[in-house]
Specification:
By secondary structure, the protein is of the alpha/beta class. The chain contains 17 helices and 13 strands. The radius of gyration is 22 Å and the shape is globular.
């Protein structure tokens, strides 16, 4: 039996509130209820990537609503089977909806048997339209520093090397001016993000793989350009295409993002399943992290944020108290990382995991805990946009 089919049902909030997903539990299918609109679902790229079959409510009597549904279905033809969910379903409406290239039509409300049949139709359509091994996509995690010097690249590279022990992972350094990811891994790649920028619309999966260089840990790395480039050398369209394509190639895509907010930053974050905001125990760290959070929240991405508190001091007894920092951030600390400057400096100098420099160190344990929890979260696929 293959991986569970990921089914997303998009319903108006009032209807979604009356639906209990547990009553639709079925073998080899994971059903997620998304309360909102089709436009909202289409804009939520991580949720879209994690959907194999979509069931979307549509009102055929509303011309604008139905046109939007038709455009979505046609733009995803061959990649995402779409089932329409319609109130007061008639034969005439069914025929009209099926002409839009939807694979099936469900009445609202629907029974478990009706849903099961529609999902199986979507499964058959997906199997027929997608080549073997295609259609399952990876997870995108973006590392963003509260400000410079927070250890953002260190966290991304160290997490990447650990993650590469159990998954196919790529780290993309999008800091086109001051990126250091390849340097921290003691790599000297001949190709970089600059080559992807030059390729632009000619970029494909094969070229993407050729640009990545493989570290001895198994981590794949797409480095920043060798020469400083203007930040606007990247565009939102290129970044979106790059991350979507990378998620088709690798299980896990880690992105090292510059701290500056530019026109494509929001595009990169909107394409991210998880945003790792890295800060430290300092007044400046907490203040700037709160400012970054405000921008992230303004873009409706607050649910994707995980706070990494770097360079913490482990107490001899008991647990560290982060209540003051959490109060300043108005967010809980997700992953405290112990400070071990000598070990981490040596690891960066040699391009190795910190565990290869200092066995059974507290900092390695903290990073492994972070990676383990993120991996478990991804496996459970619990991130549901509401």
């Amino acid at each position: 039996m293959g991986p569970a089919l990921r089914v997303t049902i998009v319903l108006e909030p009032a209807i979604a509130a009356t639906v209990n997903a547990e009553q639709f539990v079925m073998p080899n299918a994971q059903v997620t209820i998304h309360a909102g609109t089709l436009a909202g679902f289409a804009a939520n790229t991580p949720l879209l990537r994690r959907t194999d079959v979509l069931i979307a409510q549509v009102n055929p009597d509303n011309a604008r609503d139905f046109e939007e549904f038709e455009r979505f279905v046609q733009s995803h033809s061959g990649t995402l089977p779409v089932v329409a969910a319609v109130r007061d379903l008639t034969v005439a409406v069914t025929r009209r909806v099926l002409r839009s290239q939807a694979v099936d039509v469900l009445p609202l409300p629907f029974s478990a048997d009706e849903l099961h049949q529609a999902i199986e139709t979507g499964r058959d359509t997906m199997a027929a339209s997608r080549p073997a091994g295609r259609g399952r996509t990876g997870t995108v995690l973006t590392f963003l520093g509260a400000l410079g010097g927070m250890g953002t690249t260190t966290m991304a590279t160290q997490a990447g090397m650990i993650w590469a022990e159990s998954a196919n992972v790529c780290l993309i350094d999008l800091d086109v001016q001051f990126g250091n990811a390849a340097l921290y891994l003691n790599l000297r790649p001949s190709l970089s993000v600059a080559d992807l920028i030059d390729a632009d619309e000619r970029m494909d999966q094969e070229f993407l793989r050729s640009v990545a260089v493989r570290h001895s840990s198994g981590l794949n790395v797409i480095s920043c350009p060798p020469d400083i480039m203007p930040l606007d050398a990247l565009t939102p369209e290129l970044v979106e295409r790059l991350l979507d394509m990378a998620a088709q190639v690798w299980d896990v895509v880690l992105v090292d993002l510059p701290g500056a907010w530019i026109n494509w930053s929001a595009a990169a974050l909107s394409r991210s399943d998880i945003i790792m905001l890295v800060t430290e125990l300092s007044v400046a760290g907490a203040h700037q992290a709160r400012r970054q959070l405000e921008v992230i929240e303004a873009n409706g991405l607050h649910d994707r944020v995980r706070i990494v508190l770097n360079r913490t001091n482990a107490p001899m007894f008991g647990k560290a108290d982060f209540s003051a920092t959490e109060a300043a951030l108005r967010r809980k600390i997700d992953f405290p990382i112990t400070n071990d400057y000598p070990a981490m400096t040596s690891a960066i100098d040699e391009g190795k995991p910190v565990g290869a420099i200092k066995l059974r160190s507290r900092i390695e344990k903290d990073i492994r805990t972070m990676v383990g929890e993120l991996a478990a979260h991804m496996h459970a696929d619990r991130m549901v946009a509401r």
